[in-house]
Design brief:
By secondary structure, the protein is of the alpha/beta class. Helices cover 15% and strands 34% of the residues. The strands form four sheets. An eight-stranded mixed β-sheet has the order 2-5-8-11-16-19-21-22. Strands 1-4-7-10-15-18 form a six-stranded parallel β-sheet, with no helix packed on it.
Length: 189
């Protein structure tokens, strides 16, 4: 099979590289100038960080997909390790602490949050406030598409979480877990 080269293919690649470089300048030096960024960050599209008052630290060689949301409340901390990818439409929200280990892959439209609304008798949801518990995701974890990770969860190194799962309890290292709620199906060798 002969490979054909078209000027359009090279032009598209050049436009993509230029757009990524411009997004990088915008996010690093203007819109998210207070975030601690590592080197070689890929900004694949718009990122929402409205009202962030806590701290965000992002390691080297991280891929940030389009339309992701990084939300950190006052006193909260979001730490994303090296060589991590956060794919499109995902939300990482910290009122206390969310930590994502090196080499982790987060699929499309995931929700990782360390807080939830308190429910108190005699008080409206707005009056009840929030309760927070740290979320810790280990190194080299693969989190499938549309996974929800709830407050207080720890996911061990090298674990795999299947698509559409609801993680409400800790998952040990090297475990394959999926379902609603996510349950360990087997431990990987």
């Amino acid at each position: 099979m002969a490979m054909t080269h078209s000027p359009g293919r090279y032009l598209t690649k050049a436009i993509d590289r230029t757009a990524n470089a411009l997004r990088g300048l915008w996010y690093r030096h203007i819109y998210l100038s207070w975030v601690q960024f590592g080197r070689t960050i890929t900004f694949a599209g718009p990122i929402r960080c409205a009202g962030v008052t806590g701290s965000i630290r992002i390691g080297d060689r991280v891929f940030l997909g389009p339309n992701i949301s990084l939300a950190v409340a006052e006193g909260g901390s979001l730490v994303i390790g090296r060589d991590v990818s956060v794919n499109q439409g995902s939300i990482l929200s910290a009122r206390l602490s969310v930590t994502v280990g090196d080499g982790t892959r987060i699929g499309d439209h995931c929700s990782i949050r360390d807080s939830d609304h308190r429910i108190e008798a005699g008080r409206t949801l707005l009056e009840s406030g929030f309760q927070a518990q740290a979320v810790k995701i280990g190194r080299n974890v693969w989190i499938g598409r549309q996974v929800t990770v709830l407050p207080g969860v720890t996911i061990g190194d090298d674990a795999i979480i299947g698509a559409h799962s609801l993680v409400n309890t800790d998952i040990p290292a090297r475990a394959l877990a999926f379902g609603t709620p996510a349950r360990v199906q087997r431990v990987l060798a």
